[in-house]
Amino acid sequence: MGAQILHNAAVIFAATGFYGFLHSAAASFTVKEWVRRKLGEWASRRYRLAYNAFFTALLVPLLKVTASLPDRVLYVLHPPWLYVALGIQMLGLAIAADATLRTDLWAFLGLKPETRSAAGKLVVRGAYRWVRHPMYTGSLLIIWLMPAMTLNSALFYAALTAYIVIGAHLEERKLLAEYGEDYRQYREQVPMLVPRFPNLRTK
Protein backbone atom coordinates (compact mmCIF):
# COMPACT_ATOMS: atom_id res chain seq x y z
CA MET A 1 0.00 0.00 0.00
CA GLY A 2 2.86 2.39 0.79
CA ALA A 3 4.36 1.93 -2.68
CA GLN A 4 0.95 2.55 -4.26
CA ILE A 5 0.50 5.79 -2.31
CA LEU A 6 3.94 7.01 -3.40
CA HIS A 7 3.17 6.10 -7.02
CA ASN A 8 -0.17 7.91 -6.93
CA ALA A 9 1.38 10.94 -5.28
CA ALA A 10 4.15 11.10 -7.90
CA VAL A 11 1.70 10.87 -10.81
CA ILE A 12 -0.81 13.37 -9.36
CA PHE A 13 1.82 15.92 -8.31
CA ALA A 14 3.59 15.64 -11.69
CA ALA A 15 0.36 16.07 -13.66
CA THR A 16 -0.83 18.96 -11.48
CA GLY A 17 2.61 20.57 -11.58
CA PHE A 18 2.70 20.42 -15.37
CA TYR A 19 -0.78 21.94 -15.54
CA GLY A 20 0.24 24.65 -13.09
CA PHE A 21 3.42 25.44 -15.04
CA LEU A 22 1.47 25.91 -18.27
CA HIS A 23 -1.22 27.91 -16.46
CA SER A 24 1.27 30.34 -14.89
CA ALA A 25 3.43 30.65 -17.98
CA ALA A 26 0.44 31.47 -20.19
CA ALA A 27 -0.70 34.13 -17.70
CA SER A 28 2.64 35.96 -17.70
CA PHE A 29 3.09 39.39 -19.26
CA THR A 30 5.88 37.94 -21.41
CA VAL A 31 3.61 35.45 -23.17
CA LYS A 32 0.79 37.98 -23.53
CA GLU A 33 3.17 40.49 -25.11
CA TRP A 34 4.55 37.80 -27.44
CA VAL A 35 1.01 36.98 -28.60
CA ARG A 36 0.31 40.66 -29.21
CA ARG A 37 3.48 41.10 -31.27
CA LYS A 38 3.10 37.91 -33.30
CA LEU A 39 -0.66 37.76 -33.81
CA GLY A 40 -1.75 41.36 -33.45
CA GLU A 41 -4.18 43.30 -31.30
CA TRP A 42 -7.19 41.17 -32.29
CA ALA A 43 -5.54 38.09 -30.69
CA SER A 44 -4.45 40.08 -27.65
CA ARG A 45 -8.04 41.23 -27.04
CA ARG A 46 -9.27 37.63 -27.16
CA TYR A 47 -6.39 36.12 -25.23
CA ARG A 48 -8.13 35.94 -21.85
CA LEU A 49 -11.18 34.19 -23.28
CA ALA A 50 -9.01 31.63 -25.10
CA TYR A 51 -6.88 31.19 -21.97
CA ASN A 52 -9.93 30.45 -19.80
CA ALA A 53 -11.44 28.05 -22.34
CA PHE A 54 -8.18 26.15 -22.90
CA PHE A 55 -7.32 25.62 -19.24
CA THR A 56 -10.88 24.73 -18.33
CA ALA A 57 -10.81 22.05 -21.01
CA LEU A 58 -7.36 20.90 -19.84
CA LEU A 59 -8.83 20.12 -16.43
CA VAL A 60 -10.62 17.12 -17.96
CA PRO A 61 -7.48 15.05 -18.70
CA LEU A 62 -5.97 16.15 -15.38
CA LEU A 63 -8.98 14.83 -13.49
CA LYS A 64 -8.99 11.66 -15.62
CA VAL A 65 -5.40 10.97 -14.59
CA THR A 66 -6.40 11.18 -10.93
CA ALA A 67 -9.52 9.05 -11.45
CA SER A 68 -7.58 6.33 -13.32
CA LEU A 69 -5.36 5.48 -10.33
CA PRO A 70 -6.26 2.90 -7.65
CA ASP A 71 -8.08 4.67 -4.84
CA ARG A 72 -9.66 4.15 -1.43
CA VAL A 73 -12.02 6.13 0.79
CA LEU A 74 -10.44 8.00 3.68
CA TYR A 75 -13.61 9.26 5.32
CA VAL A 76 -17.24 10.21 4.80
CA LEU A 77 -18.74 12.85 7.07
CA HIS A 78 -22.12 12.37 8.73
CA PRO A 79 -24.31 14.80 10.73
CA PRO A 80 -23.53 16.96 12.59
CA TRP A 81 -20.02 17.22 11.06
CA LEU A 82 -21.51 17.10 7.57
CA TYR A 83 -23.41 20.32 8.28
CA VAL A 84 -20.31 21.97 9.74
CA ALA A 85 -18.31 21.13 6.61
CA LEU A 86 -21.06 22.34 4.28
CA GLY A 87 -21.38 25.56 6.27
CA ILE A 88 -17.66 26.30 5.96
CA GLN A 89 -17.81 25.48 2.26
CA MET A 90 -20.60 28.03 1.86
CA LEU A 91 -18.38 30.56 3.64
CA GLY A 92 -15.56 29.73 1.21
CA LEU A 93 -17.93 30.15 -1.73
CA ALA A 94 -19.07 33.53 -0.40
CA ILE A 95 -15.45 34.69 0.02
CA ALA A 96 -14.51 33.58 -3.52
CA ALA A 97 -17.67 35.17 -4.97
CA ASP A 98 -16.97 38.46 -3.18
CA ALA A 99 -13.41 38.48 -4.53
CA THR A 100 -14.66 37.83 -8.07
CA LEU A 101 -17.25 40.61 -7.90
CA ARG A 102 -14.66 43.09 -6.62
CA THR A 103 -12.78 42.71 -9.90
CA ASP A 104 -13.87 43.47 -13.45
CA LEU A 105 -15.88 40.25 -13.90
CA TRP A 106 -16.31 40.51 -17.66
CA ALA A 107 -12.59 41.10 -18.19
CA PHE A 108 -11.83 38.21 -15.81
CA LEU A 109 -14.01 35.90 -17.93
CA GLY A 110 -12.43 37.19 -21.14
CA LEU A 111 -15.62 38.77 -22.46
CA LYS A 112 -14.04 42.23 -22.64
CA PRO A 113 -10.40 43.27 -23.19
CA GLU A 114 -8.11 43.40 -20.17
CA THR A 115 -6.64 46.78 -19.31
CA ARG A 116 -3.59 47.49 -17.21
CA SER A 117 -3.76 50.07 -14.47
CA ALA A 118 -1.58 53.01 -15.40
CA ALA A 119 0.05 53.81 -12.05
CA GLY A 120 -3.40 53.62 -10.50
CA LYS A 121 -3.90 53.62 -6.76
CA LEU A 122 -4.64 50.28 -5.19
CA VAL A 123 -8.22 50.09 -3.89
CA VAL A 124 -8.92 47.45 -1.23
CA ARG A 125 -12.53 46.43 -0.60
CA GLY A 126 -14.54 43.48 0.68
CA ALA A 127 -12.67 40.28 1.42
CA TYR A 128 -9.44 41.86 0.19
CA ARG A 129 -9.31 43.76 3.48
CA TRP A 130 -8.66 40.47 5.33
CA VAL A 131 -6.54 38.41 2.92
CA ARG A 132 -4.61 39.35 -0.22
CA HIS A 133 -5.95 36.42 -2.22
CA PRO A 134 -9.50 35.75 -1.05
CA MET A 135 -10.39 33.77 -4.17
CA TYR A 136 -7.68 31.27 -3.27
CA THR A 137 -8.70 31.28 0.41
CA GLY A 138 -12.30 30.52 -0.51
CA SER A 139 -11.25 27.78 -2.93
CA LEU A 140 -9.09 26.09 -0.29
CA LEU A 141 -11.97 26.08 2.19
CA ILE A 142 -14.20 24.44 -0.42
CA ILE A 143 -11.82 21.65 -1.45
CA TRP A 144 -10.55 20.74 2.03
CA LEU A 145 -14.01 20.64 3.60
CA MET A 146 -15.41 18.10 1.16
CA PRO A 147 -17.87 15.80 2.98
CA ALA A 148 -16.17 12.75 1.46
CA MET A 149 -12.44 12.31 0.90
CA THR A 150 -10.52 9.62 -0.95
CA LEU A 151 -6.76 9.08 -1.04
CA ASN A 152 -6.43 10.40 -4.58
CA SER A 153 -8.62 13.43 -3.95
CA ALA A 154 -6.52 14.30 -0.88
CA LEU A 155 -3.33 14.00 -2.94
CA PHE A 156 -4.85 16.11 -5.71
CA TYR A 157 -5.96 18.79 -3.23
CA ALA A 158 -2.48 18.79 -1.68
CA ALA A 159 -0.91 19.30 -5.11
CA LEU A 160 -3.46 22.00 -5.91
CA THR A 161 -2.74 23.74 -2.60
CA ALA A 162 0.98 23.76 -3.37
CA TYR A 163 0.29 25.31 -6.76
CA ILE A 164 -2.04 27.92 -5.26
CA VAL A 165 0.65 29.03 -2.81
CA ILE A 166 3.30 29.16 -5.55
CA GLY A 167 0.89 30.87 -7.94
CA ALA A 168 0.00 33.49 -5.33
CA HIS A 169 3.68 34.39 -4.96
CA LEU A 170 4.08 34.63 -8.75
CA GLU A 171 0.95 36.76 -9.02
CA GLU A 172 2.27 39.15 -6.39
CA ARG A 173 5.31 39.90 -8.53
CA LYS A 174 2.98 41.24 -11.20
CA LEU A 175 0.96 43.20 -8.65
CA LEU A 176 4.13 44.78 -7.24
CA ALA A 177 5.16 45.78 -10.76
CA GLU A 178 1.69 47.22 -11.39
CA TYR A 179 0.98 49.03 -8.11
CA GLY A 180 4.47 49.55 -6.65
CA GLU A 181 4.65 50.99 -3.14
CA ASP A 182 0.86 50.81 -2.65
CA TYR A 183 0.92 47.05 -2.97
CA ARG A 184 4.11 46.73 -0.93
CA GLN A 185 2.40 48.43 2.02
CA TYR A 186 -0.76 46.39 1.51
CA ARG A 187 1.30 43.19 1.56
CA GLU A 188 2.88 44.19 4.87
CA GLN A 189 -0.49 44.85 6.49
CA VAL A 190 -2.69 42.04 5.13
CA PRO A 191 -1.85 38.28 5.21
CA MET A 192 -1.72 36.25 2.01
CA LEU A 193 -4.26 33.45 2.59
CA VAL A 194 -5.10 33.08 6.30
CA PRO A 195 -6.84 36.05 7.99
CA ARG A 196 -5.01 37.61 10.90
CA PHE A 197 -7.44 38.10 13.75
CA PRO A 198 -6.90 41.32 15.74
CA ASN A 199 -5.65 41.22 19.29
CA LEU A 200 -8.73 42.05 21.36
CA ARG A 201 -6.58 43.40 24.18
CA THR A 202 -5.37 46.25 21.98
CA LYS A 203 -7.35 49.17 20.64
How would you summarize what this structure contains?
The protein has 203 residues and is mainly alpha-helical. The chain has helices at residues 2-27, 29-39, 41-45, 47-68, 81-101, 105-109, 134-144, 151-179, 181-189, and strands at residues 73-76, 148-150.
Would you mind describing this structure in some detail?
The protein is built from 9 helices and 2 strands, in the order H-H-H-H-E-H-H-H-E-H-H. The protein has helices spanning about 1-25, 30-40, 40-45, 45-70, 80-100, 105-110, 135-145, 150-180, 180-190, and strands at about 75, 150. The longest helix is centred in the C-terminal third of the chain and has 29 residues, at about 150-180. It starts with a helix and ends in a 14-residue tail after the last helix.
Give the strand tally.
2
Largest sheet report: 2 strands, antiparallel
Poorly predicted runs of 5 or more residues: 199-203
Whole-angstrom Rg: 19 Å
Roughly what is the average pLDDT, rounded to an integer? 88
Structural class: mainly alpha
Task: Estimate the strand proportion.
Answer: under 5%
Which word captures the global form?
A: globular
Could you tell me how far the N terminus lies from the C terminus, measured between alpha carbons in angstroms? 54 Å
Task: Tell me the series of helices and strands, N- to C-terminal.
Answer: HHHHEHHHEHH
Portion in helices: 55-70%
| Count of alpha and pi helical runs | 9
| Strand neighbour order, sheet with most strands | 1-2
